[in-house]
Amino acid sequence: MAEESNKNTATRARGRPRGWADNLEQNRIKSLDRAMEVLETLGRRGGSTLSDLAEACGQPASSVYRVLVTLEARGIVDFDPGPQLWEIGAGAFQIGSHFLRRTSLVERARPALRSLMEQTGETANLGIARDGQVLFMSQVESHANIRAFFPPGTLSPMHSSGIGKALLAQMTDEQVQNVVSAHGLERFTRFTLANPATLVADLALTRSRGYALDNEEKNLGMRCVAAPIFDMHGEAVAGLSISGPSARLPDDQLPELGRYVAAAAREVTEGIGGQPRAAPQDPA
């Protein structure tokens, strides 16, 4: 009887029903999928009227309204009656915070971020790769009046981000090509590396000097210096960076700033039990 009870407990502990294929369309709840599209679209827009949100989602306003009212009851979205805007609510933040607690990365990185900000005087950032983009996880802001700001949850293209290029530089050529094929190389400024060959050359330079540089490639007048963080398998799982006005990050100071950032990244790597590895070698 005890053996049977243990067997039943083990069965209940499974994460998925036996025999179900994860990618089958039949396993998805279509109404929930549409609701998630509404929530994700609202998050990207930062606030929206019902009609604008329905148009952006390509769904009837009546359907979107029912989704919003349901989410509002859970505190996941809020409604501001003045401007008639729907916005992300505190409940969404609370759910998201569980993701941050799932890993020790954010907690381990906070001291390094604070130290990096104090050493350089610039905003320090932590980001990870997510679906071919950079997801910013944590930040310690500079005390300067003019400063960079990437709130947690912000997504940024990898090819125009310091952290993104620090991570791309640790990927194989095939992996880099997959990211480029999926997301393209959108040009944000005249300095954006929108040509594949130019990007590949920059990634080779990143590997050789030990840090990545976003040289006004996403926003004019702003620079970013970044380095990768490695896990126990020697895989680049995150990146640290400092961001600030180009005038405060001049060319002659970049090598020293790069050393600060690389040292902070090594500190976090060691803190999570990681092991740096040699970056992929370019073909001869």
Automatic annotation (TrEMBL):
Which key words are in the record?
Answer: DNA-binding, Transcription, Transcription regulation
Could you tell me which residues belong to the region Disordered?
1-22
Residues in IclR-ED domain copies:
91-274
Q: Which InterPro entries does the UniProt entry name for this protein?
A: GAF-like_dom_sf (IPR029016), HTH_MetabolicPath_Reg (IPR050707), TransRegBhcR (IPR054844), Tscrpt_reg_IclR_C (IPR014757), Tscrpt_reg_IclR_N (IPR005471), WH-like_DNA-bd_sf (IPR036388), WH_DNA-bd_sf (IPR036390)
Keyword Electron transport included in the entry's annotation = no
Q: Can you give the residue ranges of the HTH iclR-type domain?
A: 29-90
**Which PANTHER family does this UniProt record tie to the protein?**
HELIX-TURN-HELIX TRANSCRIPTIONAL REGULATOR, ICLR FAMILY (PTHR30136), HTH-TYPE TRANSCRIPTIONAL REPRESSOR ALLR (PTHR30136:SF24)
Q: What is the protein's name according to its record? A: IclR family transcriptional regulator
